[in-house]
Amino acid sequence: MSSDTQRNHRCAEGCAYTDPDSHIVKSDGNVLQGYNCQAVVDGDHQVIVAMGVSNQPPDVEHLVPMLERTITNTSKVPKTLIADAGYWSEDNAKACEQRGVDPHIATGRLPHGQPPPPIYGPIPKDLDAKGRMARKLRKKKGKEIYARRKTIAEPVFGQTKECRGLRRFLLRGLEKVNGEWLLWGTTHNLNKLWRFLKQQRLQPAMATG
């Protein structure tokens, strides 16, 4: 018996048999049977530029594939990439830099309400990649850039789950769930486009003379 099958058999009775592609994942401190949904969001209009679904729980292994998908879909290399601590690894930071992307990836989670430790003096010569990234995010510019994650990616997932009601997928199987996730992303982008065009039409005309 494979390890994946063993993990599936530990879930709630019946769920693994209806969708054997799904795996046990953690979400907001809870353990559930499901998928790991990924989305890359642009920083100007909250438009989703890349999406994907996996049954592998760790986020760290998905950063490079999603970055590559973003470059392919947009034909552009993003100047900056912001990601939470689940995506941190030295290899991921290097992969971003090799592609000309400035990474801002959290290296760990602080207790709620606790500010990051202050920075003193020059950069230590023996500081490793994780320490350099943590120091980068504690600087004024780094903090300002990383803080934008709350207004870029998080609202998109909030809108999709809370406002539009995506709490579970209707289809079964990795391929079909991926298609359903892409459909949710497409309608999200259409809604953003409609709102943008509507706002443009409502703006008063400006003239000089």
Describe the structure.
- The chain is of the alpha+beta class and 209 residues long.
- Helix content is 45%, strand content 15%.
- It folds into two domains: 1-34, no CATH class; 40-193, no CATH class.
- The protein has helices at residues 3-9, 15-18, 63-74, 90-98, 129-138, 140-147, 149-163, 174-202; strands spanning 23-27, 30-34, 36-41, 48-54, 80-83, 102-105.
- The chain has a two-stranded antiparallel sheet.
- The model is unreliable at 1-15 (pLDDT under 50).
Number of domains: 2
Count of strand segments: 6
Which sheet architecture does the biggest sheet show?
A: 2 strands, antiparallel
Question: Widest sheet: strand order?
Answer: 1-2
Measured as a percent range, the helix fraction is 40-55%
The low-confidence runs, each spanning 5 or more residues with pLDDT under 50, are 1-15
| Overall radius of gyration | 20 Å
The rough form would be described as globular
Number of helices, where a helix is a run of at least 4 consecutive DSSP H or I residues: 8
Distance between the termini: 80 Å
The helix-strand sequence is HHEEEEHEHEHHHH
Proportion in β-strands: 5-15%
Mean pLDDT: 85
Which structural category do the helix and sheet elements fall into? alpha+beta
